[in-house]
């Protein structure tokens, strides 16, 4: 029996690892709380369900089912399961109203 070892003839360009490219990737990964809530709501796909996303010191962000037409506990578990998967893909964009720029001092 003959063992054939083939090399892939396709050559891939090396990924761009410049600081600007990393910044673009990081910017794409950051989503607002509303965007994350919309993604989770779309995946749950139960009308009348309202989800909020809040910052979390341990996980980065956390979804909360605020209103649900049926079994809120099951929908909360579904939201957390979806969030666990999405955290690998998205970070919460900092938009806290509590963080404000300091006033300029003369």
> Mean of the pLDDT scores?
77
Over the alpha carbons, how many angstroms does the gyration radius reach?
21 Å
Alpha-beta classification:
alpha+beta
Element order, helices and strands? HEHEEHE
Strand % is: 15-25%
Q: Could you name the ranges where pLDDT drops below 50 across 5 or more consecutive residues? A: 97-106
Shape: elongated
- Assembly annotation: single chain
Question: Tally of extended strands?
Answer: 4
Fraction of residues in H or I helices: 25-40%
**Number of helical segments?**
3
The biggest beta sheet is recorded as: 2 strands, parallel
Main β-sheet, spatial strand arrangement: 1-4
Distance between the termini: 84 Å
Tell me what you see in this structure:
The protein is α+β, with helices and mostly antiparallel strands. The protein has a domain at 29-92. Helix content is 37%, strand content 18%. The protein has 3 helices and 4 strands. It has helices spanning 19-29, 33-44, 72-87; strands spanning 30-31, 50-56, 60-67, 91-92. A two-stranded parallel ribbon has the order 1-4. Strand 2 (50-56) and strand 3 form a beta hairpin. The longest helix has 16 residues, at 72-87. The radius of gyration is 21 Å and the shape is elongated. The model is unreliable at 97-106 (pLDDT under 50).
